[in-house]
Amino acid sequence: MIAPFEYSLSTILSLFSKDWHWDQKENPTFQWITTSSVESKDHTLFVPLRGTRDGHEFISDALAKGASAFLCEKNHPILNTLSESERNLAILVPDCLVALGKLANYHRNRFQPTLLAITGSSGKTTTKDLLGGLFGFLNPKTLVVTEKNYNNEIGLPFTLFRITEKTRVVICELGMNHRGEIARLSHIAEPTHALITNIGSAHIENLKSRETIAEEKIDIIQGMRPQSVLFVPDDLEFLQRAKQRAKQRKTKLIVWSHKKKPNLKTIQVKPNGFLLEWKGKKVDWKLPGEKLLSNVRGMVAVGTHFQIDPNQILKTIQNYKSPDKRLNINRGYYTIIDDCYNANPESMLSSIGAANQFSGTKNVVWILGSMKELGKFSKYYHEEVGKEIQRIGKGILLGFGEETKPMVKKVPNAQCFLNVDELIQFVKSNVPKKSILLVKGSRSMKMERIVMALETFKG
Known about the structure:
Blueprint: E1 2-4, H1 9-15, E2 32-34, E3 44-46, H2 59-64, E4 69-73, H3 84-87, E5 90-93, H4 96-108, E6 114-119, H5 124-134, E7 143-145, H6 155-160, E8 169-173, H7 181-189, E9 193-196, H8 204-207, H9 210-218, E10 229-233, H10 239-248, E11 252-256, E12 265-270, E13 273-278, E14 281-285, H11 293-305, H12 310-319, E15 328-331, E16 335-338, H13 345-359, E17 364-369, H14 378-392, E18 396-400, H15 405-409, E19 415-417, H16 420-430, E20 436-440, H17 448-455
Parallel strand pairs: 2-3, 3-4, 4-5, 6-8, 6-9, 7-8, 9-10, 10-11, 16-20, 17-18, 17-20, 18-19
Antiparallel strand pairs: 1-2, 12-13, 13-14, 15-16
Helix pairs in contact: 4-7, 5-11, 5-12, 13-14, 16-17
Pathway: Cell wall biogenesis; peptidoglycan biosynthesis
Protein name: UDP-N-acetylmuramoyl-tripeptide--D-alanyl-D-alanine ligase
EC number: 6.3.2.10
């Protein structure tokens, strides 16, 4: 990742310890900040992060590419391997990841845009894209929206670095998989507004209970500014907890109606979506799956709060298109519902409902991969998915991955595959032309391999 970063050395040093090696007579100005040695160039500040490899190992590479300076963790052994001239370019910090967040927060606080942060167990990206469309009437130079999946302690800072004096609205997606991450991200972003899509079971292996997951999501309040606004749905699990926390923080809570008399009404259910009505006007939402409508209603609540033209809100609904690998419908030898980007129990059930709606009376081949990070709850949640397939009572279930065995046991004639090539060959040999296939599983299952093999199949 690389982003514009026009700050002087003295400004950066003022944020951290005065323990540095640079010649104080010089005060160069950076133009870029990056975590990649490959992307380093002249006037770049290189930030080495620990991951599969320790970024500190690439400091020399970054400097060779032209980086002007680098952050480095104090007492890191890499310092002993660098030349004196290289060590003189070090800015020493306790933790490079924390330092990256601190730099991003400093940059964010130089400007005063409306900053809307989104979290939740599922539906974050849909909601983010809806809100991006909602504010699409703005000049593109004044709107910043999280790109790709840049929603963690590395990605969020690079979203914030895109803010300029022209920026009016920032829409940030905040993700997590361990306790405490949402609070840290919230303190970095300091949202003026925030939205929680739902509370589910994603990452329950790490957080141990749904109550802890709820606390983690509600922690988005921690970094919010005074008199800020939090949007939540009326069916949010632990809604009372959210109300209590909002009251304590003097945060205004706006609860949008999804289950109880929603303002955005469903007039007609269609195979490929819904006919909706809002303020007496009808509009088409072109994606199946009733659970997605909560995200749409959340967007409407935000638009109403900001007094955005109702026609712009309706246009946002009408024009929404799902991103890659999220309920994409690919028609060929098979009709493939590609929802393979990721999966947790709630999003899996949502996709099953969407595929059931899309297929009508036709059968569905449910190609469902393992749901990861469920820990001791894995068997239970996979069984629940199997029960839902059995309740729907049509088509055939093909599980992929060891964790899907409990799911498969709940459905007659279902099969479990541990080898992706065997699963693909089974489909090609046994599933007739024009069949409807739903493909979904956790990111680590790489379900896109199945989609790619089957969408190019000619029979």
